[in-house]
Amino acid sequence: MPYFYPMKDPLILLSPSKGMSSGCHFTSDIANACLFPKTTIEVVKAVQQLATGTAKKLFKVSDSMWPVVAQMWSGKPSSYTNPDHGLRGLTAYNGEAFKFLNAAELTTLGMSNAAQSLYILSAVYGAVSSNMCIAPYRLEMQSRLSVAEHKNLYSLWRPILTHWINTNDPPFVIDACSGEYSKVVDWKRVNTPVVQVDFKQLKNGQIKSVSAFSKQARGAFVRWCLENNIKEMSSLTSFSEMGYRMHTFDDNKLVFLRDSQ
Question: Would the pTM of this model clear 0.90, i.e. be above it?
């Protein structure tokens, strides 16, 4: 049985989505600063140095979609760290998790907790706060992009993000990320307690992971944490939205299960 710490203000980490919102209306003069501007500029430069054919393969886009993606990467590298008009971190992404997070309808309490605790991991920005102004981009953490002496984005971001968590010294971390993004942090070197959450389906007596349902559940779980002002690890086990119930909590991994029709 894990030990529960009476803690306040957890750090909540969530994966981004490929899909991003349209319309860049958030201005940098009211936004939080980019956390890792030098590294972000390095990533942008690495992308912009790619030949067109290599870039298409990296982003896995068709010829018809390429002009849209190319436009995303056409700005000056420094403009990505401080865009005049960009997307607000909290509402920048529109994938399944973010539909169920439903940031547009968060209460004042939920918005306040999001500003305090929620960060979205990013292959370009490292970590995006709720009130950061970011440029639209297309890049996944697992993309095979070399940056300076780093052979991939994991090698680049892992020491930076691990150090960032330890430096900020949050009381505990809620890792609501997908596997792709969770492994960008070296959890063995994180000094604070961590709870990694996962969501599974029970059908015909078998427990399975279904990607779309897991994404939806992660968004709903983060919303529940924000709206219910979750400040203690022990409170996490009471999540029961969307028919989920706690299944196991071993080695700091909290698994929720629901019956699937």
Answer: yes
